[in-house]
Every structure is written in structure tokens, then in C-alpha cells.
Amino acid sequence: MTFYNNRAVIAHINEEELYLFRNINNQIVMDYYNYNEGNIQETIIKDALSEFDIMINKDNEIYLIYQIYK
User: Fold this and answer.
1) Which of 13, 51, 52, 53 has its CB 3.0 to 4.6 Å from that of 17, i.e. a possible disulfide?
2) Would 50 be classed as within a structural domain?
3) What is the pTM of this model?
4) Cα separations (Å) of 34 from 12, 14, 27, 31?
5) Residue 21 in domain
6) What is the torsion angle, in degrees rounded to the nearest 10, for the CA atoms of residue 16, residue 61, residue 38 and residue 30?
7) How many independent structural domains does the chain possess?
8) Is 1 within a domain?
């Protein structure tokens, strides 16, 4: 797995669900968009370096890979 120095990653789960992960000031913020349930924004990591990536398995589970900022 290669880390990319992108500040945002999009995970398109299906036609009704979309996740957006962003690194803002070494914090990973998740935006969740759902056609039926609305939108949620949450800071999920507070000590990440700028490099991170995600993976989605066949069951639509999202795995976040990041490096801790120390």
C-alpha cells in the first residue's frame, strides 16, 4: 500500500452513501453523506500526519490507514 499526500479521499459506497475523509491541520475529518438520513461531519483522528489512505472491502467496510503525528 502506498501512502499518498492527498488532503482528501472519497469513498463511494453505493448510490445513497458517500464518505469524504480530509486532513485538516493533522486531524482527519470524516464527512458522511446519505441520501435518506442526511449529512454528518466528525473529527475521527486528532494526531495524524498528512499522509493517509482508505480501503473498502467487499462488505463495504472502510479501513483507514494513517501515520500518527508525534
Assistant:
1) 13
2) yes
3) 0.83
4) 11, 10, 23, 10
5) yes
6) -130
7) 1
8) no
